[in-house]
Amino acid sequence: MVTTGPPRVDDPDSPRRDKKMSLGAHLVELRRRLVIAAIALVVAMVVAFFITDPVLWVITDPIRQVAESRGEGGRVELMFSSVTSGFDLRLRMSIAIGILLSAPIWVWQVWAFVTPGLTRKEIKYTIGFVAAAIPLFFLGCATGLYVMPNIVRLMASFVPDGAAAFYDSGYYYDFVFKLLLFVGVAYVLPVFLVALNLAGIMSGRAILNGWRVAIIVSVVFAAVATPPADIATTFILAGILMVLFFAAAGLSMLFDRRKAKRNRDILPPEPAA
């Protein structure tokens, strides 16, 4: 009869391989995984370089909207101020897009390298953290992409009639990239609060008690991420961040309640008098 035994200890992808590897073996494995991640990143960057046109078309749509609204009153264009600025912009875009496209591969390499040192409980928490953080990050990027045209149109409204508005390509890309990145990271912050709760560092009640600080931080962040004159977008973004904060606090309090219930079940019953 053929039986399936435990995974081989020399299999680097096995979660049950010997944890007492030598330092040299760890370094060899780390180098192998870094090489795989680097190759995946380079391939993804090459692919991304050829799809920068549709991405550039999407992020420059607000400029075309401003140009249409101004009509013949003034020129509104994306400006490339040097000979190599067009190539530089596409290279920077391909790096950012390549990191996203290759994320499943390099995230898996990091995960496979770290997993053998984690307990089963820590692995479960890590999977839950990643499963929640990735969708929230992309949701934050989508929110930033949604509010970005309002910001561009509002800022363009301060350009005098008859004057031309030329947006430097590098500066404009930095503006869009930082906006999407900041809002995406802000959406992930509540997941870190839940992770701190699961690690026993902060209780759900302690997180909820910080709601005043959370409101101030959310409003300040939204005010920095959006132009001061766009009050509506500022409050919408701040409101979304507050909803995520209270959701994290409520989820943490639920975890605390379940943990307390398990502890009561584990404790032995008191002896009868």
Automatic annotation (TrEMBL):
Signal sequence interval, chain numbering: none
Keywords tagged on the record: Cell membrane, Membrane, Protein transport, Translocation, Transmembrane, Transmembrane helix, Transport
Cellular localisation: Cell membrane; Membrane
Bilayer-crossing regions: 34-52, 93-114, 126-148, 175-199, 206-225, 231-255
Membrane association type: Multi-pass membrane protein
A Pfam cross-reference name: TatC
Classification via InterPro entries: TatC
HAMAP family: TatC
Assigned protein family: Belongs to the TatC family.
Function: Part of the twin-arginine translocation (Tat) system that transports large folded proteins containing a characteristic twin-arginine motif in their signal peptide across membranes. Together with TatB, TatC is part of a receptor directly interacting with Tat signal peptides.
Subunit architecture: The Tat system comprises two distinct complexes: a TatABC complex, containing multiple copies of TatA, TatB and TatC subunits, and a separate TatA complex, containing only TatA subunits. Substrates initially bind to the TatABC complex, which probably triggers association of the separate TatA complex to form the active translocon.
Name of protein: Sec-independent protein translocase protein TatC
Species: Microbacterium awajiense
